[in-house]
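Let us practice reading a record.
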Amino acid sequence: MPKPGEPTVIRRLFRKLCAAPATPFPEPRGHIQAPFEHGVYVIYSPRSSEVLHVGRTYRGKGGLHQRLKNHLHGLSSFTHTHLDGRGTKLRNGYKFRCLPVKRPRQRALLEFYATGRLCPAHLGTSSD
């Protein structure tokens, strides 16, 4: 049973995530413009703005900045599956939106809700 008001909070966070600026991945030697806080992010294709991946940060230092940097350096199942392990392809017009979310439960629920609503091409099921 969800906590009272929790579905409303998650829907509101989803609207904030979708309204966040679409930020391009940086050019070589550029820096990712993402917060060092934990949160949820969406990666979009360069041509059609198709949603390719929805993810969240779990722990560790660097938050969203570090996780998106991991994708850029090919250190994720998403880059292995969709970019042949070459995360640097993200520099070619791919964009992301992200939203810091402090509470781990809200991060998880927002990631799941966004995944269900946006139907990304890649699901981190560890089977694809």
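A brief commentary: The two ends are 31 Å apart (CA to CA).
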